[in-house]
Amino acid sequence: MARTTGSDGEKTEATIRGAAVNLIARFGYEAMSMRQLAAEVGVQAAALYRYFPTKEELLFTLMREHMEGLATAWEAARPADADSAQLLSAYVRNHIAFHIERRHATHVSNMELRSLSPERLTQILRMRTAYEKELRTILRDGAETGTFSIDDTGLTAMALIQMMTGVIVWFRPGERLSIAEVTATYLSMTMRLVGARIGTYSAARPFGRAKDAVAF
Amino acid sequence: MARTTGSDGEKTEATIRGAAVNLIARFGYEAMSMRQLAAEVGVQAAALYRYFPTKEELLFTLMREHMEGLATAWEAARPADADSAQLLSAYVRNHIAFHIERRHATHVSNMELRSLSPERLTQILRMRTAYEKELRTILRDGAETGTFSIDDTGLTAMALIQMMTGVIVWFRPGERLSIAEVTATYLSMTMRLVGARIGTYSAARPFGRAKDAVAF
DNA sequence: GAATTAATCGAACGTTCGTTTTATTATCAC
DNA sequence: GTGATAATAAAACGAACGTTCGATTAATTC
């Protein structure tokens, strides 16, 4: 009974976070119990409350930090003094890379909005909207300069984001396609979709072999 | 106490299904309780078990029928003796129409896989795979005839499906864009994405007004 | 080394869950 | 009208939940 020898608060908290992301991604937030999470971490459920006051606070923290991480990554990746095509290219690359690396956290971030209380939900949605707005701005500017040919920027932005984020649904590291190949292909598809004129972006062929329809 | 005057089994079952789809879409399957569902329907929780033996069976039924409905709709919509571009066009139109009309059921079908038992999950995944294979076949054939220019059919198929299905995330009937406009735009984007040669599909401009970046 | 703080444990709280059981009433079939 | 079936209600079962509380031990600070 009582404090376990060798316990370290920072390590335990990090373990809790990691285990929570995995368990929520796999079972769902509502289906994951605190006892299950605690067992995964190697503590009793009561110990979790030393780090997170409520189950929802744990979820909110994971989701908020995911969005903050995305915003930060995009801020670092966004090229200065770049034209629309370059900006879009950077956006796509960053988006794919970020989400592939955090498949489970992305899963949680996209699928557990319903379990947040209204105020917290508002916060997360605001962050998502801000990120989406970045893409809309790129598309609008590109359309205005004639770099892109877009029917509706709002719709196009959402369609692209859904398409790109959807990579986490099917991509599995170590399988047929590499991250580089996937990224290049998504970029190529994106540029075509927005009607970018040939030559406004570098879209080297991502595959050395002939097209085939190997099943996923 | 006991049977309510005017009760009708068929009507009650239909009401249960409808209410379940709405509640699950809104709160999530795990968060929705049978008492909550029963209250929404206007019966006691025990009554639900006359129609569905378990909560999971209810979910499975909703998801299975959603997929069956989609397969049936595609079967009816698929044109006979059509080329790849026409097939893809029909696929996109059917996909968008079907999902927009069943936003909540789609939500449930996509987000609650985790709550199914392994055997049931396998069944649903098989149905999804079959539907996806239809698109892959269209893309592959189109690529072989040179109608489309595709880097990787498997990836492209998944990207398209994620993009199109994602319409339910943002589309709201009665708002800025009509279903026809949305459908036309998704079709236009799809054709570009797959590198369909101009002239191989009818992509009339879906908007009469200038492109703008009105926020969603 | 003593006091304080940190990190855990075990037990328990109050509530809710999916589900079953029994009883009751309504509707249908003959 | 009688018997069978359908459709519901009310009560309860056994289990599990998120969380709190008090106690205990480990680590840190002075």
Q: Helix tally of chain A?
A: 10
Overall pLDDT metric of chain A:
92
- Which quaternary structure do these chains form? homodimer
How does CATH name the architecture of the largest domain in chain A?
Orthogonal Bundle
Number of domains of chain A: 2
Approximately how much beta-strand content do the residues of chain A carry? Answer: under 5%
| CATH topology category name of the largest domain in chain A | Tetracycline Repressor, domain 2
From the N-terminal CA to the C-terminal CA of chain A, the straight-line distance is 50 Å
Low-confidence stretches of chain A: 203-216
Count of beta strands of chain A: 0
Could you tell me the radius of gyration of chain A in angstroms?
Answer: 20 Å
Estimate the helix proportion of chain A, in percent.
Answer: 55-70%
Q: In CATH, what is the class of the largest domain in chain A? A: Mainly Alpha
Largest sheet report of chain A: none
Shape of chain A: elongated
Order of helices and strands of chain A: HHHHHHHHHH
What name goes with the CATH superfamily of the largest domain in chain A?
Answer: Tetracycline Repressor, domain 2
Most residues in contact, chain pair and counts: A-B, 53 and 53 residues
- Secondary-structure content class of chain A: mainly alpha
Task: Please tell me about this protein's structure.
The structure is a homodimer of 216-residue chains. Chain A has 216 residues and is mainly α. Chain A has helices at residues 9-27, 34-41, 45-48, 55-77, 84-101, 103-111, 118-145, 153-165, 167-170, 179-193. Chain A has two domains: 8-52, Arc Repressor Mutant, subunit A (Orthogonal Bundle), CATH 1.10.10.60; 54-193, Tetracycline Repressor, domain 2. Chain A has ten helices and no strands. In chain A, helix 4 runs antiparallel to helix 5 (84-101), helix 4 crosses helix 6 and helix 7 packs across helix 8 (153-165). The radius of gyration of chain A is 20 Å and the shape is elongated. At the A-B interface, helix 7, helix 8, helix 9 and helix 10 of A face helix 7, helix 8, helix 9 and helix 10 of B. The first copy, chain A, binds a DNA duplex (30 and 30 nucleotides) through residues 1-9, 12, 33-35, 43-47, 49-50, 54-55.
